[in-house]
Amino acid sequence: MTETPAIRCTGLRHTFGETAAVDGVDLEITAGQVFGLLGPNGAGKTTTIRMITTLLPVTEGRIEVFGLDVTRRRMAVRRLIGYVPQQLSADATLTGRENVALFARLFDVPRKQRKHRVAEALEIVGLTGDADRQASGYSGGMIRRLELAQALVSSPRLLILDEPTIGLDPIARSNVWERIEQVRVETGMTVLVTTHYMDEAEQYCDRIALMHRGRIRSLGSPAELEAGLGPESTLDDVFRAVTGDQLEDGGGIRDVRAARRTARRLG
Ligand SMILES: Nc1ncnc2c1ncn2[C@@H]1O[C@H](COP(=O)(O)OP(=O)(O)OP(=O)(O)O)[C@@H](O)[C@H]1O
After folding, report:
1. Which of 52, 73, 145, 225 could form a disulfide with 68 if both were Cys (CB 3.0 to 4.6 A apart)?
2. Can you give the residue ranges of the ABC transporter domain (predicted)?
3. Is residue 53 within 8 Å of 160, Cβ to Cβ?
4. Which ligand 1 atom lies nearest to the CA of residue 47?
């Protein structure tokens, strides 16, 4: 018997007025994998994620999360998902522990388990020593790890991260990824992540979908995608072949925006 996939999208579409942000996506994500959704700015990644997390309606097609239809079983689906959006979700005026405790209450973690689960989530992301400091004093990497703890406190089966490492320095980036990897190994959680960083996708993702103009253009493991283009090809080459060089400027602009956003959050 085949295992129910963590996510199955069939003929998925979402339009904003005349714009088809997601334009016929078929996608299956195996439970327990780290799956990377890659694409240039405006490819439709965030729109896809927002439909999976039930935050946007499905205009056309169907999404199932562990076999549950997201349109009909919205609340049940939400209970299965931990979501770290691109925009700020940590409160700088609270301590790290208070931030995570707030999410434990929001996500209905049973009262008796809350203290333990909050401490556990902080431990996983390596923030135990800083848990009782105000988040306003955290670095960008620490804020991102705090947001990860917020998403983990409800013990989700599916963790969805929208550009978790954008705007961070290389050490903070690998630190965030190590925590994600650790949780995956320990819990068997499925992880769906968007990133602009090809090296991260190559190193940490089991499978990748390259998205461009609302459609999936290429799908497979990093090695399969590279081998498909030719010997010595890198994931960057595959990306460029699919999107026509859009990454050259796109990533930079995006990084500047993200760095500004991170600076604002810390300021
Ligand atoms: N609320 C909205 N109203 C109108 N158009 C939108 C809205 N959100 C997204 N779009 C459009 O839908 C398309 C896909 O956007 P989306 O944010 O999903 O892309 P993305 O791949 O996540 O890009 P990025 O890497 O910049 O986050 C773009 O053309 C975008 O301008």
Report:
1. 73
2. 7-238
3. yes
4. 18
pLDDT band at 267 (very low <50, low <70, confident <90, very high): very low
ipTM comes to 0.96
255: tokens are 């990084």
80-119 pLDDT per residue, tens: 999 988 877 789 999 999 999 999 998 888 999 999 999 9
Pocket test for ligand 1, best of 16, 18, 51, 242 (most atoms within 8 A of CB): 16
2 in a structural domain = no
d(CA 260, CA 264): 6
CATH of the domain at 121: 3.40.50.300
What 3-state DSSP class applies to 27?
Answer: strand
pLDDT above 70: residue 251: no
Residue 89 dihedral angles phi and psi, to the nearest 5° = -130, -5
Query: Cα(167)–Cα(187) distance, rounded to whole angstroms?
Result: 28
- Does a structural domain hold residue 62? yes
Q: Which domain holds residue 46?
A: 7-266
The angle formed by the CA atoms of residues 89, 94 and 95, to the nearest 5 degrees, is: 105
Q: How far is the CA of 126 from the centre of ligand 1 (A)?
A: 33
> Ligand 1: which of 41, 192, 213 to mutate, judged by most atoms within 8 Å of the beta carbon?
41
Instruction: Please state, in angstroms and as integers, the Cα–Cα distance from residue 215 to each residue in 8, 22, 233, following that order.
Output: 15, 6, 23
The span from the CA of 71 to the CA of 55, in Å, is: 10
